[in-house]
Amino acid sequence: MVKVNQSSTSATSLEDEPPPAPEWKKILKNSITSAREFAAHFKFSEEELRGLERVCETYPSKVNSYYLSLIKERDDPIYKQCIPSIKEITDSEGEEDPLHEETINQSRQGVPSLITHRYSDRALFLISNKCAMYCRFCTRKRKVGHKKSHVTKEQLESGFKYLNSHQEIRDIILSGGDPLLLENSSLEKIISKAHGIIKKRKGILRIGTKIPCVLPQRITPDLCEMLKKYHPLYINTHFNHPLEITPESEKACNMLADAGIPLGNQTVLLKGVNNNAGTMIELVKRLVNIRVKPYYIYQADPVKGTNHFRTKVEEGMEIYRSMRGHISGVAIPYLVIDAPGGGGKIPIIPDYIISINEKEVVLRNYENKVFKYPQTKDD
Ligand SMILES: *Cc1c(COP(=O)(O)O)cnc(C)c1O
Ligand code: SF4
Fold first, then answer.
1. Cα 208 from Cα 235, distance rounded (Å)
2. Which atom of ligand 2 sits closest to the CA of residue 176?
3. Are the C-beta atoms of residues 248 and 215 closer than 8 Å to each other?
4. pLDDT averaged over the chain?
5. Residue 4 falls within a domain, yes or no?
6. The model's pTM
7. Of 59, 90, 121, which marks where a domain is finished?
């Protein structure tokens, strides 16, 4: 081992220097965010640039240098997810908050702004308003990344007050924005408080984060050491395309899994990105290989500014049908629609049941062969 800094003078002078920024912060700093930067990078015309300027005024835009490096060419599946498009403002169909995340709370008493309490036993707690990349199809496009929606200390406190006083909540889902963009120390304060609440209730803690996909360098040994103190902790991440599974994201997921954190994945069906069986099958196979269990595939929500990503429901069902029975059951997620109006997630299951009566159920298997299952007689 080479010994350094033995003289006190050099030790002092080293201490005077700020600690080097971790790699993930450098990558984040190296983001492109303005229409002008996008235009320069992708050689847009003047007219395209003017259009994009309007988009960027309406919706936050940011692509960090890691995610940007995954783009191979204009309009590829990575590009479409992160580079703003004029379609975001030319199509006015859809609502800003179709899932009624803001208004659902009015049906309960005194739910604070950072909490969505739709299901009795679990609550969504939106602890961050920033992301490492702003997805063009984001369901919370109305507020994520906007300065006016910055999370305050007071809001966090009233969130905790609510969680504390509602004994029925046994599953706290930390989401955002991206919770893992917080510094370890701020994040740990929140996690340890939330953990204290669910621990007494024998519940679970969850984090919803896109970080393993868009900024895997953020998953550091320090972060994993911290997280593993708060089991039972689950993480759901968000990969949409096999090209997002890189050596970096594989390493990040393995580190989290090694910290004992069960990993799930939520994918959104997106036109031109992943709406075909081949892509989706490749994605789920790669996910289980990096120890991530596909959990949900969402039909895209009818959110204003994201309509160009939406696909037909039948298409999602066809993709599901191409998976079930054909690939490992471990790799198969539920296909769901998050019901507009705040109805929650509803599974969409292709028609495997042909008929059902008192005597028998007639079923279709994955190869379209027909089978019968006898009913039990009534007692
Ligand atoms: C998705 C969601 C949950 C969690 O649902 P699970 O099916 O338990 O994963 C909880 N609350 C809200 C508001 C949600 O949108
Ligand atoms: S990471 Fe999640 S919250 Fe952030 S922009 Fe993407 S979809 Fe929206």
1. 6
2. 3
3. no
4. 93
5. no
6. 0.92
7. 90
